[in-house]
Structures are given as C-alpha cells and as structure tokens.
User: Fold this.
Amino acid sequence: SPENNEKEKDEPEEEFSMEDYIEDDETPAYRLTVNNYSKDDKKIDFAHSEGASLNEVLIKQLGLRNISGKQKKLALYLLGNIDEGGYLRRDLLSIVDDLAFSVNIETNEDELSEILKIIQDFEPNGIGARNLQECLLIQIKKKQDEETGNKETLKISYDIISDFFDEFTKKHYKKIISRLSITENILKDAIILITKLNPRPGNGYSSQIVKISQHITPDFILETINDQPVVSLNSRNLPALRINKTYSALLDDTSKEAEHRKNKTKKDTITFVKQKMDSAKWFIDAIKQRQNTLLLTMNSILEYQEKYFTTGDETMLKPMILKDIATKTNLDISTISRVANSKYIQTNFGIIPLKYFFSEGMQTDSGEEVSTREIKKILQECIDKENKKKPLTDEKLAKILQDKGYQIARRTVAKYREQLGILVARLRKKL
Assistant:
C-alpha cells in the first residue's frame, strides 16, 4: 500500500550484514594469545616474610633507656627523621624549629644533640649519623670501646676519618702516610678496617613503605630452529579475545523479531549492540595490529643483528640506531622508540631489553664501522686488567684504543667510562 511504501522510504537502508556479527560458535577469528600451560604445570606460591622496620627496631631500643618524658618525645621525633639508610639528614636547628611550630615543644640544639648521642649508641652500629664521616667515626669509636685487640689500627683508622677524610676519599695516600708518620703497611691495615664498615647501617631492614618485587616478563622469546634464530611473542597463559556468543545470539534474536514486527525499540537495540560489537572487533583488530608491529620490529632487529643473536658475543653487535629499524620496517621512529624502551627478549644468554641493541658507531683505521658497545667492552677489559697501584688514566686508555685502531679522543673515553660506572684512575688506586 502507499502507506507502507512511505514507511519503507522513511526507514534507513540496512547498512550491516548479519554474517559480520554472528559467528557459528565461540571460536575467535583472532586469538590474542595461545595458552601453553598444561595440567601438569606446577603453580608455586612463594611465602613472603617481612621483618621489623628500622624505625620499629629503634623505637624498641628507645624503650629500654631511662629518660624523661620530654626526652622521649624529642627522641621519637628524631627517629622519625632518620631515613632508610640510617642517616639523620635534617640539621638539628631546623628540627628545633619544627618541634616548636609543629608539636609546641621548646628545645635547643644542645638538648637535641644529647638525645642524638643516645640514639647513635643504638644498633645497628652507625645509626643516626648526619653524614658518612660521622657514620664511620661512630662505628670505629664503638669498636674501640668493645674490642680489646687491634687498638693501633683502630686509632689510625679513627685519625684518618677524623682528620684526613677528604684525602682518604680522594685516595691521596702519600699525604696521609706523611702527615701521620706511618708506614704503608699500617695504612693498608687501616684501609681494610675502614672498608669493612657499613656506609648505610639502615639497609637490611624492612621499609615502612611496602616494596613490591618486580619480575621482568619477556615480550619476545628467541629460539634456535634448524640452526636459525627464530623470534616469537611470549603468549604463555594469556587469555583469548573474542566476541561473546551471548551478544551474537541477542543480536540474531532481536533482528528477527524487529524484522517480523517492525518494532522501533528492537531496532534501536540492534543498533546499540552493533555499535558495541563494532567497538569490540576494532579493539581486537588493534591488538592484532600491535602484535604485528612488535613482531615486525623485533624480526628487523634480529635480521640486523643476526651475528649477535647467533653467537651471543656483544662485540658482534653492529652500530644500529632507531632510524635504521624505522627505515627497514617503514614505521615511524617514535613507534620504534616506544618498542625499544619498554620491551624485553628472552635469549639463551639472558633476558635483554631491546634498547641494549641500539648504539652509535665509530670507524676504525681500516674504515670498518664498529659499535660503541664493542669499544666499551675493550675499555672495561683494559681497566679490569690494569695495575691497581697505577691505574690507567683516560689519556692512557685513549692511547691504548688508538693503538688498537679505534680513533677515539680522551673526552670520549671519559664519557664511556662514566657510562660504565667506572671511577677515574685516582679513585681506582689501591695500595
């Protein structure tokens, strides 16, 4: 009828195919991961035990001291300012002001100093110091009071830390020997004693803030198949993404009812469910695209650094920057950067962050381009084998590398040494 024709014209054309939404069963078109756990796998729960905190240990010792009520309040305030390393980092004058304004207790530096001396007698030895020098002196003094032997070495150690701390930290040993009129052997004994002291007496106690152990889960797994390195995504025990069959069935039933009765409410329901299913499908496709990007990037790194992944020898690492992989994959540099900064790969020689494989290059005398990582390894080996009585200076290290064919300046050697966490020659010196 004309009326029916008008209704048909007003109704929007069907833009969806029901086959796009309704699956035959719940088997997903795309699985996010593969579940590799078997019923034989054992699940191990590790018991976690947390001991008393440093603050609790110190408060317990304070309770054993015969002090006045005010002294106890001052002591508790001081204990609250001791950090996890066991140091009182805030100066006493500032604490005097804090007490006056915060808890309305009037005191002075001398009174606080007397309380601090009581705290510094607590265990662990060296607690409550305001700096490293004071921490070491507290420990040596307590050893002098408690130990019957080794008096001479303890006295020399105390004098070194008390009067020649700057020279000691800078390893100006000849100055110390001269000014204390001692032999090199006596100085050696004192240094051995000092180096056995604890520079962070608060370590070893539970933090008041709960710390969660972080375990690295690799994003990629490298395996050797037919003598060839093959990389795959780590998908162990992760769930699959799929469209729930309940919603597919709901859409099917509602569609049939709407078509049969021309029910507008049912058609609105259809549109709503279709939108949600479209969003779900888009999300699954986005995850799939992300995995493809990860694999594409990792396979490109694998191909670029094939010699390294085959041997595990870091000297085989070729110079490689983000742009190299971006060009190889036709991806944006920012995409490669995000992958490199947050992903790990499990290999036969350890779990390694992807950013480890990126390094700048340098040319040798022969024109060959080598990775700066190779130079750092040689630098590390030179320092490991050096005579600790006469450590190699940056100038000498630069000369050694130049003799090996690496054109490198002294300031570059210094930069690489600092990146490796190695001290300057003077501070590496040993008697």
